[in-house]
Amino acid sequence: MARDNIYLEEEFPTPIKQLWLTFSRTPVVMLAFICYLFLFVMAIIGQFITPHDALEIGDKLLFPPAWSDEGDVEHLLGTDSLGRDMLSRLLHGASLTFGLSFVIVIISMFIGIIIGSFSAITRGVKSSVSTHFLDVILSIPSLLLAIIVIAILGPGLDNILWAIILVTIPQFVHVTRDAIKEEQRKGYVLIPILDGASELRVLITSIYPNIIDKIIIQMTLSQSAAILDIAALGFLGLGAPIPMPEWGAMLADSLDLFYIAPWTTYLPGLTILFTVVVTNLVGEGLRHSLKLQKAN
Amino acid sequence: MLYFTLRRLYLLSFTLLMLSIVSFSLSYLFPGDIIVNLSGITNPTLEQRIELNALYKMDDSVFHQYFAYIKQVVNGNLGISMFNNAPIVDEMNTYLPATIELCVTALFIATIFGVTLGFIAAIFHNKWIDKIILAFAMIGYSIPAFWLALILIVIFSILLSWFPSSGQINLLFDVKEVTSFIFIDIWFSDIDDKWLAFQDALRHIFLPAITVAVTPMTIFIRLSRTSMLNVLDSNYIKAARAKGLSNVKIIYHHGIRNALVQIIRQMGMHFAHLVSVVMIAEVVFDWQGIGSWLINSIFQRDYTAIQGGLIAMATFTFLINIFADILYVTLNPIERYKRHGA
To answer: pLDDT tens for residues A124-160?
Structure first.
């Protein structure tokens, strides 16, 4: 049979690369991915490129966005009840709501993988206790758990960080544990074991590279949940302290003025919606391409 | 079947044990005096303190304290609220029914619409109607509940004034609280215009229920779509088609029933998520339920209330979970022997 490839070696792309190849084929998902990267960049540099200081109190109160008749181009998205520029606040908020969710997901991923691997390679009572304990935490509503942590630590941005990390960890433990259990049944894992590799070595060199795609998918799904949790806690007044431009807190701030200045409410809401939709689309795209890969 | 039920109940007791340990340790973790956190009496006199110390065995080891605490909880003594000195159990009796009512209504709406839309999407797989439903599901899944609640209030109560934006029933109706389930109370009350009161309560529950229903509804859409697609792909559907049955008959007789079984199982799993949304919706719509009560107690530093709320809400979620599990296994005997300790 004629071969396209004149070299003898066949190249097998790594699971991550395979995932990327199928992932980048869907236009909608790629668009979402570009938006996701944009949000990521904004979370890092957003607070340095704001046209005004996000906390600066101006004298132009409740200016509507620039496209309405009374608007002012200087404040592209209008101002809030204290004359603070909405665009600047939204940009600054990207680092709080979106950036924080990223930090949360990274930390809980590491802790979750460690606990999940432990739970997967142990057997008997230890494994059973860790699974059931996990079930308990998983079945407590996430907001309730976060509220309890906040009751212990007190409200504040760094405390809700810990609260949401605690809520997110069990999801990662679950995914890691199930993925490792699934891989352990496959044949290729047996070979290093027969070679005499220790359980830890098998885990690191053989299993982790093959489950990393599942963990990345879980990361995006957890992140969208984390964004909603941060915003919800901010909305309830338990998260970011008053002047901070966290999107949920901004929304709660603007409630009294909803009728006079609707843009102060719908802009943060739309931003949260946009962010979560983008994150979910990326996650869905990844999940879909993983499914396609399995089918092939 | 009996064996399976017993197993689940055994697991429930284990879960409750864990929960009780967590809630007991909270009185150590919360700021302030342990005995104050346990009993809720903020400034106990010396006699009260001695009495409480004896009741909760504070002079013994932690194990004795734990068992003393469990004894109190089992006897229905969760302490008194630090905010208004009412017993926590009484408070919960007034607030929990409202929450359950909201949850059940929302779950009902979510199931009816979610499952129907999901089936429609699956039947028209890869057609434009499927894509519209999927896009709707994606947005509904991502929309922040509190923002959705505000938008619904603006559209339906301020602009159109169709539905009231807060409360459970118009105060003009003098409905006596017996069970705290508003609909049952109306049923048993002796007011003249029961039907009007019922309509009013229905209008009050509409917006919060829609808000809460959207997230689980989108989950159900996707679940029912996937399970219907799986069913339609299976061999017995091909056999039915080969027999010459019409599409409607296939879907009605073979599709829907087999797809529904999968959904019941997932319903229990997503219940915890629903409760989170309920808590937010209760705050926005000023619904006198346990969620808004809990969030208020954080601001009032009412630690006994938080503790009690945790026990009540978590137990409620566990019970629903187990109920869904048992229901699932009853309907689907194949699963009965598969899931032992997996």
So the answer is: 777 777 777 777 777 778 888 888 888 888 878 888 8
For tokens 């600054």, name the residue.
A92
Distance CA B142, CA B115 (A): 19
Q: Chain A partners of B26 at a C-beta cutoff of 8 Å?
A: 148, 152
A13-55 confidence digits (pLDDT tens): 777 787 788 888 888 889 999 999 999 999 898 888 888 777 7
Tokens of B19: 């929960």
Interface test with B, best of A125, A137, A147 (most B CBs within 10 A): A147
Nearest by CB: B295 against A236, A259, A262? A236
CA of A3, closest CA in chain B: separation in Å?
36
Q: Which ranges of chain B does DSSP label H, i.e. alpha helix?
A: 2-29, 34-39, 46-55, 62-74, 88-123, 128-142, 145-152, 182-188, 194-233, 235-243, 247-249, 256-269, 271-284, 290-299, 303-331
pTM of the model: 0.86
Residues in Cβ contact with B24 at an 8 Å cutoff, skipping those fewer than 6 apart = B65, B66, B69, B70
Tokens at B231, concatenated: 């069913």
Say how far apart CA A123 and CA A162 lie, in whole Å: 30
Q: What are phi and psi of B70, to 5 degrees?
A: -60, -40
Assess contact for B288 and B152: CB atoms under 8 A.
Answer: no
The predicted structure's pLDDT at residue A3: 60
pLDDT tens digits along B118-149? 888 988 888 899 889 988 888 888 888 888 98
Q: Parse chain B into domains and list their residue ranges.
A: 88-336
With CA atoms as reference, the chain A residue closest to B30 would be A152
Supply the CATH classification number for the domain B88-336.
1.10.3720.10
> Given this model, what pLDDT does residue B342 score?
42
